[in-house]
Amino acid sequence: MTTDLVIEAHGLVKHFGETKALQGVDLAVARGTVLGVLGPNGAGKTTAVRILSTLLTPDAGTARIGGHDVVKDAVKVRQSIGLTGQYASVDEDLTGRQNLQLFGMLLDLGKANARARATELLEWFDLTEAADRPAKTYSGGMRRRLDLAASLVGRPDVIFLDEPTTGLDPSKREDMWDVVRTLVNEGSTVLLTTQYLEEADALADEITVIDHGRVIAHDTPDGLKRVVGGQTLEVRPSDLTRLEETATILAQVSSDGRAEEIRKGVLAVPVADDSALTATVSRLASVGIGVTELSLHLPSLDEVFFTLTGRTASADDTSVTDKKEVA
Amino acid sequence: MTTATTPRSAIAPNAPSTATAVKKRPLPLVRHSMSLAKRSLIKTMRTPEALIDVTLQPAIFLVIFVYIFGGAVAGDTTTYLQFLLPGILAQTIAQGAIAIGVNLNTDLDKGIFDRFKSLPIPRASPLVGAVIGDVVRYVVVIVSTFVVGYLMGFRITTDPLSAVAGCLLAILFALSLSWVSVFVGMKVRTSGAVQGIMFLIIMPLSFASNVFVPTASLPSWMQTFVQWNPLTHLVAAMRGFFLGAPMGNSVYYTLLWCLGLVVVFMPLALRAYRKKV
Question: Do A87 and B11 touch (CB under 8 A)?
Fold first, then answer.
């Protein structure tokens, strides 16, 4: 089962003029799993997805989807994939239903099935009420759901989600995560790009980190978190006079024995895993310290990058690279 | 989170289903192009204002030219109307070909083409579909021009079949010219630029022609251009089909131009399209 690779890429290279979008990227995704491709803007995530989904041909390297070469067997690949990204969109002048029916016709579902499939997807994505309004009237979250629905019309085995939650507010993000989990439960294989470690952690079985067109890390979410220093526990005691006392307790659960005041009245300590949270709560309670804020944070993308590369993710020319990549 | 997932999972949005198994069907290009032509039509119906230019312009041109220049050019307005209408029709239909390049350019901007390209359909289908969808625009032009023309006193003096043949020739020419528009649409950055460039091509073709005045009345250097102008041949042929005027070889020249435009610009347009990422 684990050796059954549905997505396989070896040494993908793609240059756009001077911009080296990909400089030899390997990716592997086993059937029924989620690979999170994590990287900052301009890292090459979108270029990789566009190559895997046959929209671009690589300058060098090979990629196979379900055993079919993305260049030589592009038509076969297109039959088995669904693509959702900010570029692969819907027709804004058409209604949600018309869009889905059109894609159903283009996927040879036949008229009746295309219609039934559209209705089913609209219902599943809570778009039934808006089904007969032009897509340009949809809100951001609705548009994102319609984009995703559009990529599912043909019941693809492999689904590419290029930054599916960028720009969505946190509650909509959770909804999208539920959708992805459901798809995987039904046996789909998902490749998802993201700028958020939190998202990759929530959804992915494995994470590939890419930067400047190269893979700089590949691991399970837990493995990656171990490398980049795990999580941070933040506590704000309700009684600020007991800050010192709280710091002492936190130092005991901390993985490196130090508690730091990161904002006025907020202490932060690095912790090894989730169990630190319950330990902290019970120890604070036993001495009667109340808290107004208690949270566990994963490292930000910046911190991941700083650990892996020794520099921050948002530095230098990445925004320029990104523009070329999307253009 | 779990509560939201449960009812959704019950529907199994992406589970394999035998009901929607992909069937192999013949003629994929024709079939998918028709689906995409339907899309163009839905868009046209949704934004009828996009049809205003092609419906109102021939009416306005007919009224202005017939009543302002008719007396001076042809002696009386009725004679001039008979002369002018086939020309205005040809000119407007030719201008109708601009829209496709503009629309395709907009599609590229919006990213809907990437969706099409990720689907297992022949790559030319979105283009061919848009071209077919345009035929409807041309029919609208023809109908509105004839309605206004008839109200003003225009009469076809041949037979309905010949009239239809004249209209079909005009549509064929516009479809051939569409490929130029598609090519420009794929090559330039903004949809406004497509409009501008196509207008620059079609304007001299419209005016340096036999549309408004007889070729013989033009200076001889311009007559050379006019005699090569595809629109001149189209209009001469249409006058023959509508009014029984002598056609000469104009039908053949028009068909030759159509063939030339398609042979040169269809591959160019398709290549430019394939290159678009």
Answer: no
pLDDT in tens, A79-126: 999 999 876 688 988 999 999 999 999 999 999 999 999 999 999 999
CA distance B23 to chain A (A): 7
Task: Copy the structure tokens of residue A72.
Answer: 């030589």
Q: Is B75 exposed, middle or buried (0-12, 13-18, 19+ CB in 10 A)?
A: exposed
Pick the CATH number of A5-225+306-325 from 3.30.70.600, 3.40.50.300, 1.10.10.10, 2.60.120.330: 3.40.50.300
Query: Among B51, B241, B238, which Cα is nearest to B140's?
Result: B51
Report chain B's terminal Cα–Cα distance, integer Å: 38
Number of CB atoms found within 10 A of residue A150's CB: 27
Q: Which domain holds residue B238?
A: 26-276
**A window 167-186, beta carbon within 8 A of B:** 174-175, 178-179, 181-183, 185-186
3-state secondary structure of B20: coil
Enter the ipTM: 0.77
What mean pLDDT comes out for the span B150-160?
A: 94
Contacts of A159 (CB under 8 A, 6+ apart): A81, A82, A83, A84, A151, A152, A183, A188, A189, A190, A191, B14
Domain count across chain B = 1
Residue A325 vs residues A22, A47, A87, A131, A286: alpha-carbon distances, Å: 10, 6, 11, 33, 55
